[in-house]
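Morning run. Coffee first, then this:
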Amino acid sequence: MATTDTKNAKKTEEKKTKSGIPAASAKPASASNAAKKPAAKKAKANNPATKNTAAEKPTAAAKPVTTGVDAKKPAAKKATAKKATAKKATAKKPAAKTPVAKKAAANKTVVKKAVKKKTSAKKRPTANKAASMKLKGVADIRRYFHKNEVPIYFISATNFNLLGADEWIKSFKFVSYIECFDGLHPNVFSPKEEIPHDDFTSIEDINNYLLMHPEVQDYLKTRSKGKKAGKAMFLMFNEETEKLAKKQGLEIMFPSAKMRTFLDNKVNTNRLAMKAGVPCVPNVLSEVKNYEHLQKLTTKLGNDLVIQTPFGDSGHTTFFISNEAEYNKYADEIEQEKEVKIMKRINCKGSAIEACVTKHGTVVAPLMTELVGFKELTPYKGGWCGNEIYPGAFTPELREKARKYTRLFGDQLRKEGYKGYFELDYLIDQDNGEIYLGELNPRVTGASSITNHAVFALADAPLFIFHILEWMDVDYELDVTALNDRWSTEENVDSWSQLIVKHTADTIEYVDQAPRSGIWKMFDNGHIQFDRMDTHRRAVESESEAFFMRITKQGDYLYEGADMGILVSRGRMMTDSFQLNARAKKWIAAIQGQYASTIVEDKRVLAQELSTNLMK
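And here it is:
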């Protein structure tokens, strides 16, 4: 998410995406970002964990991974069967007198017709049954998924983003690169052996690796129904993912990668908002040639500006410009783009809302606060690092505006051909109270876990259920207006917070000890203790407990920006003035204290030595 009230974001080698996984970076350790798209190289030995909720394991070789054997073509099989039947019929043809032969031929024709009728009779009831099946409302939809027989997968670096989906959908499994639960999660499959692969540079690389892994391919085959392996969701995917999924017989439950790339473009998002009637921060969309050209473009926006390039997340491609010196720092990145978004800088707070485009309208979840740039959680000044959901978040007027704008934007997405899950970041101007669209994430995100575990989702169904329903080839009825009205009431919202805990020091450290995933308990003195293994974050009973989902494990490497894990608890973690509260600080310090590591390289010391030498 990019907010316009933060300072210049530090330029790093890593990108982050609000999703829940890591990508590769130039550092020896792999990343595991639970939110926005990171990248990190791993050390040759040991298995470094990656971000956005994913970690990279050590590369065995640079040799490309093979994709396996192609599936047989059904068309060829069908033709062969037809040919065999014809031969069989010819062999039975009598060779007696002509009249007899004619009679036999006549009989043969009758047999053929009878067979055709019989086949038709068998098929007809199935077709009629499918045509007549219609789910009428939320209760039918819930029952339908509890009886589901179609194999459904979430394939990603970790299962963080759709945590708990297996409890709502029968035959739902997670295929994860990082094993966060030490093999104790009943519905997570993670390949045991690492096969040679190139360094991961994105979440897409991780997903493509998984689809090419022999263990994953074998697992899909054991659960397939005939030639169809089932349906799959991905946090991030590209055209290569689409090809690999098709080869394995998987249907991707998202619009095409091409469409998602188009929508990911911040400039395109801005234009869609204009078409939908959703306000954006006053802005100009244009190419920028130099600082003088920028000044001419922004005479109505003032001197304090925010420039965003089309792609990039978590503050890494958001530049705050108020003079020529600041512009020159980022001139190369700004001027290489054909078009950028130039905004007036406002004093704002961030918020997020998730929704789902369905055939019956846009289902909208409640508005959440966003945690951004806290130094205790992230080294990135504009970096997303968590969310809160609670009754009374923001004023009723702001909540209503956010719901209205989200419905309008969702309806516009449907006109563009999009369907399914999406998330919008809103910027709330602290000076005039206005709410503006920040950016669009056309996917499940790092905030999805908190959305889908709140009480409104349990009372009806999680938002991801309505997304998956759009790909289940079943007709259904849904009163979207009534659903949105229920979800907008404070009675249907309980209080939850999640913190994305990153390694904030500029060091590279080998992890000797890491905390387990599960429920942890805090004592009155601020110390914590592992209480019990659980994969259900709702098992947290009070604010003195928290669910921790470990990303970086023993044997991995920590480096600046690496995800250590996700901490989820009941109640709030921020004050009303959007600062970390005392409880949040205690939990952060306590969970970080459960890690023991050996420093491999301290870049802080190197930087200090360099600074000292320059001053001599």
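The chain has a mean pLDDT of 83. Good start to the day.
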